[in-house]
Amino acid sequence: MKEDRSVLGSRPQEVFPGVFLVGGPELTHPQDCLVYAIDGEREVVLVDTGAGRSAGKILENLEMVGLGGKPLSKIILTHCHVDHIGGAKSIAQRTGAKIVCHRGDLQAIERGDPVRTASSWYGVRLPELKVDMVIVGSEEEIQVGGTSLLCLHTPGHTPGSISLLWEKAEGRILFGQDIHGPFLPEFGSDLQEWASSMKKLLALEPDILCEGHYGIFPSREETRRFILECLAAQGFEI
């Protein structure tokens, strides 16, 4: 397994054309996952929100990278864990953004389940949260300004884990938060489902991977290598 690559500098930055890193342990709060913003030209989408103690800082970082003048239309929650969803309610209330998740994690997110969300690990009490848009199938497109994001159900880490694919002229960007795991019974993890999900992601041949804790993998080769290493660590070979 590669070493942790989440330390990408202490300032928000554009990591690929139209993709911005606006949150993370070095940027906002040590408990936060890496939080990405997608510039859809007429609107902005946030991929995850950190654990909740840095919602204001994330919004400041959107301003810093030049996205503050555009409406934040959607917050896509890639799965139910607190380091990804904790700031969703606060950010949505401040911006009017609609919250999106997959049906498989809906109940844990809306109820703030302390076990399924791992909030008890973090010493965080999650508020009840109303999700505005629920993804129910294996694939669903979400419009973002003049473009669209493909939401892929990639269960394994949690039942409702999703990954996002954004196809641009510059390349295919995969947002695969926590595709590395961990895998625990209390999360509803399923290793066989996860292995199938990873094979689905490999078949996409993304040109860049934006991961939730291991950082940016800026080439097709590095992305493939990372996913294969994750599979090998769990005893799967391709």
Can you describe this structure?
The chain has one domain: 4-Layer Sandwich (Metallo-beta-lactamase, Chain A), CATH 3.60.15.10. 25% of the residues lie in helices and 26% in strands. The protein has seven helices and 13 strands. It has a seven-stranded mixed beta sheet with strand order 1-2-3-4-5-6-7. β8 and β9 form a beta hairpin. It starts with 12 loop residues before the first strand and ends in a 5-residue tail after the last helix.
Count every helix, treating DSSP H or I runs of 4 or more residues as helices.
7
Instruction: Report the portion of residues in β strands.
Output: 25-35%
> Which structural category do the helix and sheet elements fall into?
alpha/beta
Q: In CATH terms, what is the architecture? A: 4-Layer Sandwich
The name of the CATH superfamily reads Ribonuclease Z/Hydroxyacylglutathione hydrolase-like
Instruction: Please estimate the helix content.
Output: 25-40%
| Widest sheet, order of strands | 1-2-3-4-5-6-7
Our measurement of the CA-to-CA distance between the termini, rounded to an integer number of angstroms, reads 16 Å
Shape: globular
Integer-rounded radius of gyration: 16 Å
Which fold name corresponds to the CATH topology?
A: Metallo-beta-lactamase, Chain A
**Strand element count:** 13
Largest sheet: 7 strands, mixed
**Could you name the ranges where pLDDT drops below 50 across 5 or more consecutive residues?**
1-7
The CATH C-level class name: Alpha Beta
User: How many structural domains in the coordinates?
Assistant: 1
